[in-house]
Design goal:
It is a single chain. The protein has nine helices and five strands, in the order βαβαβαααβαβααα. It is mainly α. The protein has two domains: about 15-105, 3-Layer(aba) Sandwich (Rossmann fold); about 105-245, Rossmann fold (3-Layer(aba) Sandwich). Strands 2-1-3 form a three-stranded antiparallel β-sheet. A two-stranded parallel sheet has the order 4-5. The two termini are about 35 Å apart.
Length: about 250
């Protein structure tokens, strides 16, 4: 079970810092367990105890939590409720919450929609249109990833968009680059979720809710702007999109 922390201290290396907004540093932390093996009651108790242990380390202007692997809106609601017992009601300390607890419209779809906006920005840079491309949306779990790990030499795609967290094997990444395949790194491509978590935090701080259309519009604007900033930096430093030397 993993939560993201948007804090004031950087736990990321320079690679990560270059490819996501510097407004708030991102870190990750969690509990070594498989939520699927727990009952709802067990998961709730675990989440609440976890919150008790970290409540004095998080806050609306220090560390703000966001959902990640093994967590969802319900998990965030438990954390908020437990945090409230210690330091009072403060919706901005948690993002990815249910709408009725101060969550943001569009948050549940934000990661996938961000991938679309990132893909559109990349294709436009190469004079391509998303409407004219063929796509293979591919996902591998632990079993599938091992079954396909040797297939990289057969990849015919011109572009690979990393919607998951660092999906390629490092050697596969190198092979793709040598073949001229353009790889759009995960740290940018799947940043839609954490970006809208930032929007949720802003809404909570300001005390009002944006319409879903505004959330999506702002997300598109941020993703496109970030892509152009990354491209400019790649040009300046003669690197590939991941930051490696070209």
């Amino acid at each position: 079970m993993v939560t993201q922390r948007c804090g004031s201290d950087s736990g990321d290396d320079g690679e990560w810092q270059r490819q996501r907004q510097r407004r708030r540093w991102r870190q990750k932390g969690g509990i070594g367990c498989n939520p699927m093996d727990l009952t709802k009651s067990e998961l709730e108790r675990l989440t609440r105890v976890f919150t008790q242990k970290i409540h004095d380390l998080i806050g609306i202007r220090t560390d703000v939590l966001a959902p990640d692997m093994g967590t969802n809106a319900q998990t965030m609601a438990w954390i908020l409720d437990e945090y409230t017992k210690f330091l009072g009601h403060s919706p901005a300390v948690i993002t990815g919450k249910p709408i009725n607890l101060g969550g943001s419209l569009g948050r549940d779809a934000a990661t996938g929609l961000g991938v679309v906006f990132a893909t559109e920005a990349l294709l436009a840079d190469y004079g391509e249109s998303i409407s004219k491309m063929k796509f293979a949306i591919q996902g591998f779990g632990n079993v599938g990833s091992w079954a396909a790990k040797d297939n990289v030499v057969d990849v015919k795609a011109k572009f690979v968009i990393e919607a998951a967290n660092y999906p390629p094997d490092p050697k596969a990444d190198e092979i793709l680059s040598k073949k001229g395949v353009v790889v759009l790194p995960d740290i940018y491509a799947n940043a839609g979720g954490v970006t809208v978590s930032y929007f949720e935090w802003v809404q909570n701080i300001q005390g009002f809710m944006w319409a879903e259309e505004k959330v999506n519009h702002e997300l598109e604007k941020y993703m496109r702007r970030a892509f152009h900033e990354i491209k400019a930096m790649c040009s300046t430093h003669a690197t590939l999109l991941r930051g490696w030397e070209a």
